[in-house]
Task: inverse folding
């Protein structure tokens, strides 16, 4: 712990109040006179600006919330069209559908209706997990007509809301084509309850009641629908709730109230709705590109609340303008005093952002209380980060930062995967003390990690005494197979050298497997616990190849096996020699896998 000595300090609020109090008192009279003279005109102008900005913010939020539905259908359609995935391969389609949903928690599910009458569905359960199910499509003329209409469109389009399996969905549907041949329809969207919960949260943030109407007669999203039981409100014949049936007097009178024609508020309809003698100001804007029926996104609030907010804003604005000119000199002097520690904090924070913790000096204490508390908190954070740094793959973090990629979207690409495993680990450690086992593994893992980092690989995880790593992401590495093979040879050499150094524990020998293939790579996991990792059949195949190493164990040295795909990819690399040892059946693969033994050339 650093900087624990208590120092006398003064609050920044007290310091600023002392500097500007006399200036505020002097200017109050002028401010009141000017604000009273211009209050009416500014109130109207601020009303227009506030309405415009608020509706635009709501529209942008709604578009951003539902946009992933359209993007997911387009993304999977492109993968199929390019031949990256085979629509007849159930596992590939499930992996693509799950990967697409991983970054969009608002999406309720993704469904594929193929041209054989089969349904493949991936849905998000109440606990957030993804569930997979298969079914046969029912002989429903309306459904078949809808599928045929989607097929004719040739691109993802927003469809009318539909009730299915106990919920109403707002969804996008698009055709899937492989090699120019129609394969089926992909569907994805959000539920009315989930969309209503989102609109409720946005409305609270804006300080209004927010809503979305579907056309002139139905409610698409409303705070009252976020926790409603869909089975009681909706059905196949009534997928949406009519406005007249909503327990909201303002919206029931919304369409009946004549709008105020004001051209200063662009594309926004303003209606003063009278309910029980109280005026509510309701504003809406039509979104016409999310299907054939327009969505009307809107807000409303009591007129008195809006006037109070705007009046306070007008008063604060004029007071700030009046004081600004007189206070600027004092502000400059005060800023010079405050800026120095802030610059130090900014520089230190920049180093934290680049994960350069060893280059950061602890911040000095300040006599300004808030800056002093900030310095103490920063120094405590630095101590914690330096400790936590040992648990974080620093090289991976630095490479992601260098690429300015903070989202790391999941995607499929060709990579090379490596597994290492200690031969006879259980027997080796049976009579060792736990502390000795931990020391042995720590030394062993450090040697392996150094070899992987030397070839710019990504150390994915430790699995007991095993290590998993991959090459080709996040950096683009056309020679990923060659890098992995070199790393495997270097690991075997490092283990052999450690075995000859007179170590206290039994000598270590390894099974090392390398395989190249297509994988889903990116941030996988829950929002609060993400891993940058890879998933797919290539990982499973590499693990099976590692298990084959025992067939070639002669009892001396490490065993390195690589797949034929890796050997073919890296075969022309200098310093590598591949010995074909045959083709083998591996669990989970219908075809045999060709395997080669790797050695130095």
Result:
């Amino acid at each position: 712990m650093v900087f624990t000595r208590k120092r006398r300090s003064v609050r920044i609020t007290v310091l600023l109040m002392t500097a500007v109090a006399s200036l505020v008192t002097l200017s109050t009279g002028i401010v009141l006179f000017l604000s009273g003279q211009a209050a009416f005109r500014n109130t109207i102008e601020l009303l227009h600006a506030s309405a415009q900005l608020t509706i635009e913010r709501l529209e942008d939020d709604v578009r951003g919330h539902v946009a992933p539905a359209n993007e997911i259908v387009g993304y999977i359609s492109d993968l199929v069209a390019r031949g990256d995935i085979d629509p007849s391969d159930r596992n590939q389609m499930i992996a693509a559908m799950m990967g697409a949903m991983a970054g969009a928690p608002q999406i309720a599910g993704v469904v594929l209706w193929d041209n054989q009458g089969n349904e493949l569905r991936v849905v998000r359960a109440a606990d957030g997990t993804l569930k997979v199910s298969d079914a046969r499509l029912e002989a429903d003329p309306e459904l078949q007509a809808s599928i045929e209409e989607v097929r004719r469109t040739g691109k993802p389009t927003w469809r009318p809301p539909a009730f299915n399996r106990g919920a109403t969905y707002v969804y996008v549907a698009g055709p899937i084509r492989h090699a120019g041949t129609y394969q089926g329809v992909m569907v994805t969207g959000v539920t009315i309850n989930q969309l209503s919960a989102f609109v409720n949260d946005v409305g609270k943030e804006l300080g209004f009641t927010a809503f979305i109407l579907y056309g002139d007669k139905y409610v698409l999203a409303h705070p009252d629908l976020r926790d409603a039981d869909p089975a009681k409100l909706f059905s196949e014949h009534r997928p949406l709730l009519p406005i007249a049936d909503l327990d909201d007097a303002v919206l029931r009178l919304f369409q009946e109230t004549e709008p105020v024609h004001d051209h200063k508020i662009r594309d926004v309809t303003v209606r003063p709705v009278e309910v029980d003698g109280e005026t509510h100001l309701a504003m809406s804007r039509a979104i016409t590109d999310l299907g054939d029926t327009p969505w009307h996104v809107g807000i409303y609030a009591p007129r008195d609340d809006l006037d109070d907010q705007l009046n306070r804003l007008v008063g604060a604005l004029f007071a700030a303008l009046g004081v600004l000119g007189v206070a600027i000199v004092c502000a400059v002097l005060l800023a010079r005093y405050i800026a120095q520690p802030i610059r130090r904090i900014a520089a230190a924070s920049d180093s934290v952002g680049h994960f350069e913790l060893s280059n950061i000096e602890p911040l000095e204490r300040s006599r300004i209380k808030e800056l002093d508390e900030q310095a103490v908190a920063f120094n405590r954070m630095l101590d914690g980060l330096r400790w936590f740094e040992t648990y974080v793959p620093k090289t991976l973090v630095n490479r992601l930062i260098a690429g300015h990629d903070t989202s790391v979207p999941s995607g499929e690409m060709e990579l090379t995967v490596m597994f290492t495993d200690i031969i006879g680990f259980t027997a080796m450690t049976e009579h060792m003390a736990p502390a000795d086992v931990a020391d042995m593994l720590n030394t062993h893992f450090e040697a392996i990690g150094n070899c992987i980092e030397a070839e710019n690989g990504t150390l994915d995880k430790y699995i007991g005494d095993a290590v998993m790593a991959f090459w080709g992401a996040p950096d683009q590495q056309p020679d990923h197979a060659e890098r992995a093979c070199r790393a495997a040879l270097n690991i075997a050499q490092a283990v052999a050298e450690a075995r000859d150094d007179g170590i206290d524990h039994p000598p270590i020998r390894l099974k090392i497997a390398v395989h190249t293939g297509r994988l889903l790579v990116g941030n996988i996991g829950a929002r609060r616990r993400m891993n940058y990792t890879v998933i797919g059949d290539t990982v499973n195949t590499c693990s099976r190849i590692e298990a084959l190493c025992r067939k070639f164990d002669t009892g001396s040295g490490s065993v390195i096996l690589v797949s034929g795909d890796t050997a073919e990819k890296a075969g022309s690399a200098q310093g590598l020699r591949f010995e074909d040892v045959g083709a083998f059946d591996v669990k989970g693969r219908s075809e045999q896998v060709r395997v080669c033994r790797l050695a130095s050339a």
Remarks:
- The first strand starts at residue 109 and ends at 114.
